[in-house]
Amino acid sequence: MPTPYPPTSLEHIRELRRFTGHDGLSGAELYRGVLIDGTPVVAKRSVADGDVFQRLLGHRNSLELALWREGVLDRLPDGVSSPTIGGWTEHDASWIVMRDLGDTIVGPDHPFDDAEVDRLLDRLDRLHSSGLRPAATTSLAAAIAMFSPPRVAELGTVDLATAVEGGWAVFRDLAPAGVADSVVALARDPAPLVAALEARPIGFCHGDIAGVNLAWQGDGLALLDWGQAVLAPPAFDIARFLPSGLRSSILTNDDLLDRYRAVTGTRFDEFALELSLLAAFVWYGWQKALDVVEVRDPARRRVEADAFAWWVDRLPRAISLLT
Length: 323
Hints:
- By secondary structure, the chain is α+β, with helices and mostly antiparallel strands.
- It folds into 2 domains: 10-100, Phosphorylase Kinase, domain 1 (2-Layer Sandwich), CATH 3.30.200.20; 114-321, Aminoglycoside phosphotransferase (APH), C-terminal lobe (Aminoglycoside 3'-phosphotransferase, Chain: A, domain 2, Alpha-Beta Complex).
- Helix content is 46%, strand content 16%.
- It is built from 12 helices and 10 strands.
- It has helices at residues 52-56, 63-70, 114-128, 140-144, 149-155, 158-174, 177-188, 191-198, 235-245, 253-264, 270-294, 298-321; strands spanning 13-18, 29-35, 40-47, 80-81, 84-90, 93-99, 203-205, 214-217, 220-223, 230-232.
- Helix 6 (158-174) runs antiparallel to helix 7 (177-188) and helix 9 (235-245) packs parallel to helix 11.
- The longest helix has 25 residues, at 270-294.
- It is globular.
- The termini are far apart.
- 44% of the residues are buried.
- The model has no long low-confidence stretch (mean pLDDT 94).
- Residues 94-261 form the Aminoglycoside phosphotransferase domain.
- InterPro entries: Aminoglycoside_PTrfase, Kinase-like_dom_sf.
């Protein structure tokens, strides 16, 4: 719900101190502090020129700040919330202030069980079915092509560009030639995939469903980091959870997709799911390939190889929908 006195400048935050070694992967700076009413908060400062993810997504200023100002994050459906309670711009920087959720954040290696996955899918279905249509979102093309080799070479860091190019090279070595050619072509130009997805029913998607962006507040789901929010088929969110979401769970990707079908019922869109899985791999497949060859632990490498094989076996279904 809206904060009675939202923090709209640094004057509203006391005891501000920067996280040591915990800045966002994009280059954003993270701070902890306390509001004048005693509420513990986390503040995130991002600068377009210094925030690589913001540049890759085409946002000059923070999308999360735009969504908060638009009131979207205060109109989320029952059971879904955002910890964002304020923000402002300062010269070329955007500030976001969030309630400090502490150790309620699920984290990257969370062992999701079947009951928790059902709750997650239900809360996401509520978001997707909410009818929210923000004026400010990430374009679907930018969301899919965020790590396009040409885009990363132009707007990313040298290290990221090297990793992306290297990952797609490994993918070409590991995947069947026809699949590799199609996926790498879409990574460079996702226009056919974007058009196919835009032809399906859409909803408001968070865009970056991952353990680091999830927290349970009682029975409700708090979603952090709305910087990749997008209007897309609801399956888009589900597909983007799969590359890393279940890596510490006994559940498989197929288990989760079966549960997603059950949660959505007659609204389930098989075509959108297949296209969204392809979009998720175009977005992150380079990293899935690197995981196969760079993980040192043999047991973990086998897990990553099996995960990679699941994606490669699935991709031709969606590729065939584009022809």
